[in-house]
Amino acid sequence: MIKPLTQYAKASGCGCKIQPAVLQEILQGFTLDSASFPHLVLGNSGGDDCSVYDLGDGKYLLQTVDFFTPLVNDAKVFGMAAAANALSDVWAMGGKPIMANAVMGWPIDTLPVSLAREVMQGALEVCNAAGVPLAGGHTIDSPEPMFGLSVTGLVESTNLKTNAGAKAGDVLLLTKPLGLGMLSAAHKRGLTSLEQDEILYKWIVQTNHVGSILGGISGVHAMTDVTGFGLAGHLLELCKSSGLGSVVESIKLPRIAEAETFASQFILPDNAMRNWNAYEGEIDMRDAGAFAWLVDPQSSGGLLLSVGAASLGEVEAALRAAQCFHQTIGEMVEINSLTPGKILTVI
Q1: Can you list the alpha helix ranges (DSSP code H) found in the chain?
Q2: pLDDT tens track for 95-146
Q3: Residues 6+ apart with CB under 8 A from 265
Q4: In this structure, what are the phi and psi dihedrals at residue 209, rounded to the nearest 5 degrees?
Q5: Chain CA centroid to CA 234, Å
Q6: What is the dihedral of CA 249, 315, 211, 70, to 10 degrees?
Q7: Which is the catalytic residue, given 14, 16, 239, 324?
Q8: From the CB of residue 126, how many other CB atoms can be counted at a distance below 10 Å?
Q9: Full-model pTM
Q10: pLDDT tens digit string along 188-198?
Q11: How far, in Å, are 55, 129, 234, 296, 332 from residue 228 at the CA level?
Q12: How far apart are the C-alpha atoms of 219 and 210, rounded to whole Å?
């Protein structure tokens, strides 16, 4: 008898990421920066979404790989979400994905090949809709199913967005509501209704293609996507890379209404508490009601933007034109304006 797809993996979606403290231990001493290779613009030193290579003609080559275990039981939706999540890394750098290769691990003796084909079909549909050829890939027989993409992209050198360019006074925007991790955790535990499943599916398959448009707006000073480390983790990365702090207003955090029940009951992915344990010393949490939403690992989450106040209208107009959800959540500030030792204040 075949169990629901999510039951074949220990963790779901971006919640399967190795916790931040352990990841730092693994990568210690392996940092690669642009000084090591003349054409390498960005390596792994800053925690950006892609590595960046200078082609020498005014364009940069972007490269990323992203994959995870099933976050929903619908195999096709899983493939769509994994593809949208991987492509997002290129859009988060202001670029345009031009080619993708599939990365799949599948328990051949446990799950039918037909389900693997549904995963591939979902990914193919998302790639085709984005105009990205799914050109090849690699598969292995593994005890846990996993799927994602290696993606290659291009960006004009002047349009590159990183997590290091934020400026004090910038407005912070988020392009998807929070709660995807809680919904997927509840889904895995059989606690969601059809309505809750539908809203989860809606958001995780939605792409962040607007990022390539935002790359052309100079007032977008920094950009990243919100995935397995939660909003707090990815915002802290942006703060550290930019040498700034941030203030987030709890009341402004966009929350998926269908996830409210799970937040109140602390039905969270396991990775949520690991995220908090890694970051709590850097956060001045003045509103405990924001806790679940800040640490919730998002799978195929939205873009986090740091935008100059003078460009906010232009950015919001671009987001509206792309029919993209967006919400202002706070601002970037000088660190010395915050409680000593803290980088992020939640009010």
Answers
A1: 20-27, 75-91, 113-129, 180-188, 194-205, 211-214, 230-242, 260-264, 270-279, 291-295, 312-321
A2: 999 999 999 999 999 999 999 999 999 999 999 999 999 999 999 999 999 9
A3: none
A4: -60, -20
A5: 8
A6: 30
A7: 14
A8: 24
A9: 0.93
A10: 999 999 999 99
A11: 31, 25, 9, 8, 22
A12: 15
Tokens 């074949």 appear where?
Answer: 8
Q: How far apart are CA 295 and CA 79, in angstroms?
A: 25
179: alpha, beta or left? (left if phi > 0; alpha if psi -120 to 50) = left
Instruction: Name 55's Cβ contacts closer than 8 Å, sequence gap at least 6.
Output: 39, 61
Is 324 a known active-site residue?
A: no
pLDDT for 173-182, tens place per residue?
Answer: 999 999 999 9
* CA-based nearest residue to 173, from 276, 309, 60: 309
User: For residue 26, is pLDDT > 60?
Assistant: yes
- C-alpha–C-alpha distance, residues 197 and 49, integer Å: 28
Amino acid at 214: L
SS3 at position 103: strand
Alpha carbon distance 263, 176 (integer Å): 17
- Residue 189 half-sphere exposure toward CB, CA atoms < 13 A: 12
